[in-house]
Every structure is written in C-alpha cells, then in structure tokens.
Amino acid sequence: MNNKTIWTHPPDRTEFDKDLYVIGCGYDEINEKLKPRRRSTQHKIEYHILYFIEGGCTVTLNGSNHTAKAGDIVFFHTDDKYLYTYTDNVKVYWIHFSGKKAVSFMDELEMRESFIKKADTNLSGYFDNIINEISLKKRHYNKAMQGHLMVLMTAIVRKKMMNSSRLDEVLSRMNNIRKKELDLDEYAKMCHLSKSQFIRVFKEYTGKTPIRYKNDVLIDKAKERLTHSDKSISEISSYLGFENIYYFSAMFKKSTGMSPAEYRKTHK
Questions:
Q1: Same domain, 57 and 134
Q2: Taking every pair of C-alpha atoms in the chain, what is the biggest distance, in angstroms?
Q3: Closest alpha carbon to 77 in 159, 156, 158, 141
C-alpha cells in the first residue's frame, strides 16, 4: 500500500454519526525521522492509535519514556499527554477518532489508559476497511466506518489481554460439554498461570468469572434443548453433565427465575 492520509469532514456527518467517528486515518511509509508529534488540541476528545508494520517510535507519555517497535499497537487515551517520534524506515497505520459517546464506549471496553502492546496477529485488514470506506465514500459510509472502528477496537482489546490464544482454547473447551470438565487448577495450567492469575485474566477477557461463564454456557444449552427438543428434563440434565436433576433444576431457576418445566412451557 502507498502512503495514504485521509481526513473526514464535519458536513458529512449526521447527528447519529457524531456519537463515534473517525477524524482521520491512514498508512504511512516514512524513510526519515520526523519532528516530534503531539496530541492535537483541535478536538476536546481524541483517541489515537498507531500500529507498526515496520520500524517504530519513541514515546513520552505523561512524563515517562517508552519505545514501540514493529508489531506493536500504541493506544493514546484522550486523558493522557503524549509526544512521539518515528524511527527511520517506518511503515505504520494510524487512526484518530472522537465522538460524543467515545468516552463511554472506551470505558465499556475498559480502555481507560494509554498503552503499548504487542499484537499477536496482523491487524492491517481492520485499518484497511476503515481507510477504504473513507476513500470511496459510498452511501452511508460513516455508519460502515463506525462499525469497522468498533470491530477494530474490540480486536485491540482482545490483543491487549494476556494469553489470548490459550484463553480461546479454554473457552472452546468450556463450550464443548462432551469433553471432560476440568477444574480451575487444570484450566490455569493450560494458560501457564497460577489459579488466582487465571481467574483474574479470564474475567478481564470475558467479563465473567470462570465458574459464572461455565454456568452460563450450561444454562444457554439447557434453554436450547428445552425449547427445540422433546427430551425429558432428566435427559437434558444428564446430557449437560449434571449428576443430580434437582441441582440442575435449582441452578436453572436461580439463573432464569423459572424451573426448566416452566421455561419449556413458556418458550416452546
């Protein structure tokens, strides 16, 4: 890809679009050091992302010095003061975004501070989607651009988490009820973490404790079978791995407010 810098223009935005919008984005190939770049003062709310394909930058963030290199994501939060300088021979994607709901959106994603983090997979496609939408300006491109931005930020949040690939293996196993259930110590071992570290990282990754996540998986699968099959409640309980139908029924009622029989009668 050749150098590409694109800025959006306020007249293009509807009131809906102003909730979350891209100020500008692009892809740069730079063969020489440039003067240091600071946060713009034009926008009161502004988030800034750099994603390095080659090269990197030196960063002064709230008075502390850091270095970013190829493969790193650099996220600058709107509350932080920063200054960065590219190294020689840089290939970098970048994006600035803002909006009336940007702060609440970032809080929901628990991105409340700046960071530099290694991306364990290539994120170029996410940036290319946003650049293409702004370049082509098809009808309703702002809505599509907003969607792509939300997908990008969600992907970055997941890359920010430790052991994401191993946690995905844990989630896959928890969702496969035909496999033998493991205890927390065994799941922690899969991620090369202590039990307490695993619980903390798991909750950061999913928003739930491991036990709550697994219970929700079982309840969701129970709802599906109660609604879309004629299996007895006893058979469903056994299929889900419960040794005691009474425990299954009590857990189901605690989660849904209804017994399995009442749920089936209401939803089938």
A1: yes
A2: 71
A3: 156
Residues 22 and 91 in one domain: yes
The domain boundary residue, chosen from 129, 160, 191: 160
pTM of the complete model beyond 0.90: no
CA–CA separation, 29 vs 198, rounded Å?
A: 40
Interhelix angle 260-267/210-228, nearest 10 degrees: 50
Q: Which residues pair with 116 in a beta bridge?
A: 74
Give me the helices (H) in 36-176, please: 102-108, 124-136, 141-160, 164-175
90: domain CATH number? 2.60.120.280
Terminal-to-terminal C-alpha distance of the chain: 53
150 and 202 share one domain: no
Q: How many CB atoms lie within 10 A of CB 267?
A: 12
Q: Which residues contact 101 (CB under 8 A, 6 or more apart)?
A: 19, 20
Answer for the pair 23, 43: CB distance below 8 angstroms, yes or no: yes
Other beta carbons less than 10 A from residue 125's beta carbon: 11
Query: CB under 8 Å to 99, separation ≥6 — which residues?
Result: 18, 19, 20, 21, 45, 105
pLDDT tens per residue across span 138-174? 888 888 888 999 999 988 887 655 556 788 889 999 9
Tell me the backbone φ, ψ of residue 103, rounded to 5 degrees: -65, -45
pLDDT tens digits, 175-215:
998 888 889 999 998 888 889 988 988 887 888 999 999 99
Domain termination site, one of 117, 135, 160: 160
Are residues 161 and 191 in contact, defined by beta-carbon separation less than 8 angstroms?
no
The span from the CA of 130 to the CA of 223, in Å, is 38
Q: Same structural domain for residues 142 and 45?
A: yes
